[in-house]
Amino acid sequence: MKVVPVPVREDNYAYLLIDEESQTAAAVDPYDVPKVAAAAETHNVKIVAGITTHHHFDHSGGNEALVRRQVPGVPIYGGSDKIPALTNLVKDKDEFTLGNINIKCLATPCHTQDSICYHVTDAIQKQHPGGVFTGDTLFIGGCGRFFEGTADEMNAALSYLATLPSGTVVHVGHEYTAGNVAFAKSVEPENPAIARLGDLVKQEKITSGLTTIGEEKEWNVFMRLGSDAVRNATGETSPSAVMVKLREMKNNFRG
User: Fold this and answer.
1) pLDDT tens across 123-137, in order?
2) Active-site positions?
3) DSSP assignment of the chain
4) pTM for the whole thing?
């Protein structure tokens, strides 16, 4: 199993999820189909499916072009009929395969109610730690806005992702890491894990695919609602109230 990030728009990520044995790939959130198709050609793989994390246009906007022009008739997986060209509606804990790759659907409603994260594991390459495509639910060091949900729903979504194996590699929907680090430092300035993430940002332009769920639990303040530093920064104690305040602070953060 291999994951190839394809930067699109100003800061979005599309991906190729590649089964190396069959040389086939699923295109994840393929907003810019020509770019995704070029990446597939570079890696000598055939796109056989589309996977959509949620219905927002910057993630699902390439679906029609994918199925009508690039690879006619490929299945499109997603969490609601709001997703263009949808053929395979999925719900929490549904599973499907791409060659030797098992893909498990994790419902994480909040940013949108149809947000699905996809946990991928390789049945043959047992040493591979697996990965998760998180769309706009989990970012490296941050999380998505609560456009269609509540703080409690985001807490539940991130807590769900936190149950994945610690080594699970995180593949996010946007490159927001630098801004998330700056905000995290304002909340937990003494956290050494946040300093490590800051070093990564200085070294790498593309940070998606370089971090894990275990590390998110160390440096992502939205996954650290019980931390004394996070509670002190928000002035709140209950997880729900802490999450509400953190999101408000991040929305207004200009650091």
Assistant:
1) 998 889 999 999 999
2) 54, 56, 58-59, 111, 136, 174
3) -EEEEEEETTTEEEEEEEETTTTEEEEES-SSHHHHHHHHHHTT-EEEEEE-S-S-HHHHTTHHHIIIIISTT--EEESSTTSTT--EE--TT-EEEETTEEEEEEE--SSSTT-EEEEEEESS-TTS--EEEEETTEETTEE---SSS-HHHHHHHHHHHTTS-TTPEEEESB--HHHHHHHHHHH-TT-HHHHHHHHHHHH-S--TTS-BHHHHHHH-GGG-TT-HHHHHHHT--SHHHHHHHHHHHHHH---
4) 0.97
